[in-house]
Amino acid sequence: MAHLVSKPAILAATGAAVLAGVGLYTWQVSRRPSGLEIFFFNTKGAPAILVRTPDDRRLLIDGGANADIIRQISRVLPFYSRRVDELMLTTTDTKHVGGLIEVAKRYEVSRVYEPLSEGTSVMTPDDLPSMDFFQALLRKQKISPIKLVREQEIIPGHGLVSGEVTDVSVEILFPRPVGEFAYSTASPPQIVWRLRYGQTSLVFLGGASSKVQKSLVPDLIPTDILVISRNPASGNLVPAVLTATAPTDIVFSRSPSITGSSRSSKTAVPDPLAGFMPDRQFNIQTTEIIHIVSDGRQIKINKNP
What is the sign of the dihedral through the CA atoms of 122, 175, 284 and 69? Predict the structure, then answer.
């Protein structure tokens, strides 16, 4: 004989299951590391980076080409939170700005940073629609982008600072003021930055050209992690940069179908990653998320946390 289950009993069981799920999620969120977190997302178009400070200030650096970034950050931020304190656009390429448009639409944003573009070509014709839309959206939200240039420093969530910084900080290494660097009209605007927290640090080269990288060498010091947004081979990583930064780990973006060395009809270019053990190389294109945690003394890197 079949037993009928009352509607109140079903509702009670459903409610209990929902509460249990919410409780488990809240427990997982409360267990996030107490230090600095950095997430590298394999977003469509170009990688995106989320910096989350110990006091839960959030800086999103680039956003990929489209709304894929929403799916990615939803995996690491509480579902009920609609706050990303600051956005940083490291170049005006559509592959970097498209996702930031989606974030600015859906999340509460206080500040936006972009590279100083004097002396460069601000954008290509293909990039115009995305940048125009992004800038119009910011005007509607009454946000005036802050132009970044060398020697400026940011505390995520607190804006530009001056003087000695003891918190998480992002130091701008490039662009340089006009007159300090021989820009060409074909040079895209771009930001190169160094993040520091305690005794740990990370240098982000992005897609910086060889000319830009060479100009940075005198300013570079040893760092824990070096990040390049493309294939380190094919001449994309200047050897002097690798020597100056002497990183323990390297994060890069290279199609799995491409081998380490680049071969032309005349000569083969050695793979600059040859000096790194396999467990010290992190290719964003072979994983969904790279998760970095720092307590200010040492860094731990995980894939797909």
Answer: negative
Q: Is residue 6 part of a domain?
A: no
248 close to 225: Cβ distance less than 8 angstroms: yes
* pLDDT tens-place string over residues 181-202: 888 776 788 999 999 999 999 9
Compute φ and ψ for 258, nearest 5 degrees: -95, 130
Query: Which structural domain, as residue segments, surrounds residue 155?
Result: 31-303
Q: What is the mean pLDDT of residues 122-140?
A: 78
Q: Is the pLDDT of residue 210 over 80?
A: yes
Please check whether residue 8 lies inside any domain of the structure. no
3-state secondary structure of 147: strand
Which tokens in the block code for residue 200?
A: 């740990």
**Euclidean distance between CA atoms 197 and 24, whole angstroms:** 31
CATH number at residue 299: 3.60.15.10
Look at residue 47 and tell me if it is in a domain.
Answer: yes
Q: Residue 111 in contact with residue 159, Cβ under 8 Å?
A: yes
β-pairing verdict for 268-269 and 262-263: antiparallel
Q: Can you tell me the distance from the alpha carbon of 228 to that of 220, in angstroms, rounded to the nearest whole number?
A: 15
pLDDT digits (tens, 9 = 90+) for 216-254: 999 999 999 999 998 887 678 999 999 999 999 999 998
Interatomic CA distance for residues 128 and 192, integer angstroms: 22
Residue 242 forms part of a structural domain:
yes
**Which amino acid is it at 47?**
P
- Cβ–Cβ < 8 Å for 283, 250: no
Q: State the pLDDT at residue 1.
A: 52
- Is 21 in a helix, a strand, or coil? helix
